[in-house]
From TrEMBL:
InterPro entries: aa-tRNA-synt_IIb, aa-tRNA-synth_II, aa-tRNA-synth_II/BPL/LPL, Anticodon-bd, Anticodon-bd_dom_sf, Thr-tRNA-ligase_IIa, ThrRS_anticodon, ThrRS_core. Keywords: Aminoacyl-tRNA synthetase, ATP-binding, Cytoplasm, Ligase, Metal-binding, Nucleotide-binding, Protein biosynthesis, Zinc. The keyword RNA-binding does not apply. GO terms for cellular component: cytoplasm. GO terms for biological process: threonyl-tRNA aminoacylation. This is Threonine--tRNA ligase. Pfam families: HGTP_anticodon, tRNA-synt_2b. It comes from Melittangium boletus DSM 14713. It comes from the Bacteria. The lineage of its organism: Bacteria, Pseudomonadati, Myxococcota, Myxococcia, Myxococcales. One of its GO terms (molecular function) is metal ion binding.
Length: 401
């Protein structure tokens, strides 16, 4: 029996998603859950646009030579889903998006005027996780990364890392996470690239972190096989730590794929590559959110923000007109016109995680007013126009951070 605050229980109660044996480690998103997914995705997408990322889409299936060149065939193959065709030509479903982005940059053939070049993708990836390690949305075989890669000159590197780190705290606060820590993960035992390359990468990333004012907890040996990384760790209301955002400095893949750009003097130079994500996995972040808020998501994130509950048949038309005004202002609203008691409608709205219930009875119709009931039980009577203004303000997305 799952705990009522487990995200899998909350997903069932809020009608967001389900998992089943026929698709182990993969999610069936229900309409309400997919709406939540899209709200988070759009939040990230708005920030990507503001920061100059070009959104792309790359193939799910790539052949063995690309994975050999990237180093994943030697260092990550046990976590990849492989396929083969006649002639023993091997392919693999992508576990990461970076080799695909590198293919795009090679085709672009950038000059120094194009740098920094920032590519972003909501990349669906697959990883062959052992069945015993699968755990709801926290550990999946199929998930979406809010992935981004920055290709830049060495003199641009520190500023790019600073740009990423500068406003990340405010981004997490919008989702209700106030306490963020940063960890520095250095070279692992199994890695690609020489010690000299790793020495340079670690020193550059630590220097940029210091310039950003970050105080990092050291995590020896926890870096990616291609480079060191900064990891942003969120603490939830239960005091648990969740590693979400990351920025990684990679000097290995540009070398292995022979990436280059043309500098001001016409000479070819090697770009530096940054891998960055704010959430890591959208699915996992939703699981963290659900448990952190115990299912009571902030109003701007709630799939259903307002339920209008007419009491009796007479107020139904009034309730529909009120709901229409809210929809015109982009509020997510429904009308519960069932022949149920007010207490039943309150319980059902609470169970569905709805932040606001609007009660409309005969008295409210006569006064051209409504009663607003918050999720915590507080309530007040407001005129129709004042109620619309209040709910629109409460349900509006937080200012983009």
């Amino acid at each position: 029996m799952l705990d009522v605050h487990d995200h899998r229980s909350l997903g069932q109660r809020l009608d967001l998603f389900h998992l089943q044996e026929e698709a182990p480690g993969m999610v069936f998103w229900h309409p309400r859950g997919y709406l939540l997914y899209q709200l988070i995705e759009e939040r990230v997408r708005r920030r990507m646009r503001r920061e100059g990322y070009l959104e792309v889409r790359t193939p799910q299936l790539l052949s063995q030579p690309i994975w050999e060149k990237s180093g994943h065939w030697d260092n990550f193959r046990q976590n990849m889903f492989e396929l083969s065709e006649e002639g023993a030509r091997h392919h693999a479903l992508k576990p990461v998006n970076c080799p695909g982005h590198i293919q795009l940059v090679q085709r672009m053939g950038p000059s120094y005027r194009d740098l920094p070049l920032r590519l972003g993708e909501f990349g669906l990836v697959h990883r062959s996780e052992p069945s015993g390690s699968l755990h709801g949305l926290f550990r999946l075989r199929q998930f979406t990364q809010d992935d981004g890669h920055i290709f830049c000159a060495e003199e641009q590197l520190s500023e790019e890392i600073l740009r990423f780190c500068r406003s990340l705290h405010a981004f997490y606060v919008d989702f209700g996470f106030e306490h963020i820590e940063v960890a520095f993960s250095s070279r692992p035992a199994q890695r690609a690239g020489s010690d000299e390359v790793w020495d340079l990468a670690e020193s550059l990333l630590l220097e940029a972190a210091s310039r950003s004012g970050l105080h990092c907890r050291m995590q020896p040996g926890e870096g990616a096989f291609y480079g060191p990384k900064l990891e942003f760790v969120l603490k939830d209301r239960l005091g648990r730590d969740w590693q979400c955002g990351t920025i990684q400095l990679d000097l290995v893949l540009p070398e292995r794929f022979d990436l280059s750009y043309v500098d001001a003097s016409g000479q070819k130079r090697r770009p530096m590559m940054l891998h960055r994500a704010m959430l890591g996995s959208l699915e996992r972040f939703i699981g963290i959110l659900l448990e952190h808020h115990e299912g009571a998501l902030p109003a701007w994130l709630a799939p259903e923000q307002v339920v209008v509950a007419p009491i009796g048949e007479e107020p139904v038309d009034f309730a529909e007109r009120f709901a229409a005004k809210l929809r015109e202002a982009d509020c997510r609203v429904s009308v519960d016109a069932r022949a149920e008691s007010l207490s039943r409608k309150i319980v059902d709205a609470h169970q569905a995680g709805v932040p606001w219930l609007v009660v409309v009875g005969r008295r409210e119709v006569e006064k051209n007013a409504v009663r607003l009931r918050r999720r915590d039980g507080g309530q007040e009577d407001l005129s129709l126009d004042d109620a619309v203004a209040r709910l629109v303000a409460e349900c509006r997305p937080a200012a983009a951070s």
